[in-house]
Amino acid sequence: MVKLLILGVLITIGALLQLSGLLDPGELIAIARQYADHWWLPVVLVLFQVVLFTFALAGTVFLWVAAVLFPPLTASIILAAGATLGGLSAYFFSATLSDEWVHRVESSHIYRVLHKQDNFFVLLAMRIMPAFPHGLVNYSAGILKVNLAYFVPATFIGIGLKSYIYAPVIYQAAGGASLNDLLDINTFGPLVLLSAVLLGCVIVKYQWDKKHGIPVE
Questions:
Q1: Sequential DSSP letters for 177-214
Q2: Could you tell me the pTM of the whole model?
Q3: Contact 96/60 with Cβ under 8 angstroms?
Q4: Angle 174-179-185 from CA coordinates, rounded to 5°
Q5: Rounded Cα–Cα distance for residues 170 and 61 (Å)
Q6: Which residues contact 167 (CB under 8 A, 6 or more apart)?
Q7: In the chain, which stretches have pLDDT less than 70?
Q8: Using an 8 Å Cβ cutoff, are 66 and 75 in contact?
């Protein structure tokens, strides 16, 4: 009953945020600009990401805010910190999910991949891949009790690297970047390639270990 109540509250919060327009990048940027000179703004942006990632909401919307208001490196650190702390929060929050939500997570391809290959490079490849559903990664990792020594650095490095590639596109456009800019092959191509190489190496190692009778992680 408690789990159902929690889920009901989360669904309500998510719906209200969407209807209110508070998750609209333009609105968020306009609000954040008013406090751009305050030292605590990065902390607030990190905390907002933590809340959204915990409840599998669109925490990456803050990419547009951080990238417009801060230089690429600073924005990348803010986004990596928020995604990592939010991912950890979602990791532990997964224990409160209802049986229905757990079943939906367990039926996902991401869950099955992590179940077979619980290692740093698989997690890093998932984090780097553009438009990847980080909420499912966080919840799947929590349900599977994925090694935090893999989960934390893979999240920070993966999100940080991806943000550092996206941030200059948005920053140089001074907030005028469009979705087409981020969808340009020159922007996301290196991320896809790196993610594919990482997954390819994992597959090759898995097959090698299997062929030579080495216990697979």
A1: --HHHHTSHHHHHHHHHHHHHHHHHHHHHHHHHHHTTP
A2: 0.79
A3: no
A4: 105
A5: 13
A6: 63, 66, 67, 72, 75, 76, 79
A7: 1-23, 25, 173-193, 199-217
A8: yes
Q: For the segment 78-115, what is each residue's pLDDT rounded down to a tens digit?
A: 999 999 999 999 999 988 887 888 888 999 888 988 88
**Residue 95: both structure tokens together:** 């224990």
Radius of gyration of the chain (CA): 18
Do the beta carbons of residue 163 and residue 75 sit within 8 Å?
yes
Q: Which long-range contacts (CB under 8 A, 24 or more apart) does 191-196 make?
A: 191/128, 191/129, 191/130, 191/161, 191/162, 191/165, 192/129, 192/130, 194/125, 194/128, 195/125, 195/126, 195/128, 195/129, 196/125
